[in-house]
């Protein structure tokens, strides 16, 4: 007997969008390329912002002058990655949710987004130790998301 979750994954895999992606190498490649661009924006923005918040990079620049553009890059990259990721997920939903690296990637993404939200709520004004730690932790989490995603693709 199929569970409701299993039925939902089967429905996603049987959708017209999933079938179109599954049957088109060009569409899959284009989505993968845009997903990689999104991941690059996330990783680059997180690294730049985290190193500034941690006081390692651009210490003479106002924090907001570095962190705000980096935050916009992260949000743009996340937007691209979430849309393209959902589309790439659709043809293989059942297999993806059962994969440990995919589960790790999603867990790390939630943790990274939580760090991002906490840092954003601090308004980038504070150069205290807690902000520095959160900035570096966010960077490490976003990089870990990218690495877990890479492992999922390489080892699936």
Fold and architecture overview:
The chain has one domain. It is built from seven helices and no strands. It has helices spanning 4-14, 16-23, 25-53, 63-89, 93-98, 100-121, 129-155. 31% of the residues are buried. 83% of the residues lie in helices and 0% in strands. Helix 6 runs antiparallel to helix 7. The two termini are 26 Å apart. The chain is elongated, with a radius of gyration of 18 Å. By secondary structure, it is mostly helical.
Main features:
single chain, mainly alpha
Kindly summarize this structure in a few lines:
With 156 residues, this protein is mostly helical. Helices cover 83% and strands 0% of the residues. The longest helix is centred in the first third of the chain and has 29 residues, at 25-53.
Describe the secondary structure blueprint for this structure.
Layout: H1 4-14, H2 16-23, H3 25-53, H4 63-89, H5 93-98, H6 100-121, H7 129-155
Helix pairs in contact: 3-4, 3-7, 6-7
The low-pLDDT segments are none
What do the pLDDT scores average to? 88
**Proportion of residues in extended strands:** under 5%
The gyration radius over C-alpha positions equals 18 Å
Total number of helices = 7
- Identify the overall geometry: elongated
Q: What's the number of structural domains?
A: 1
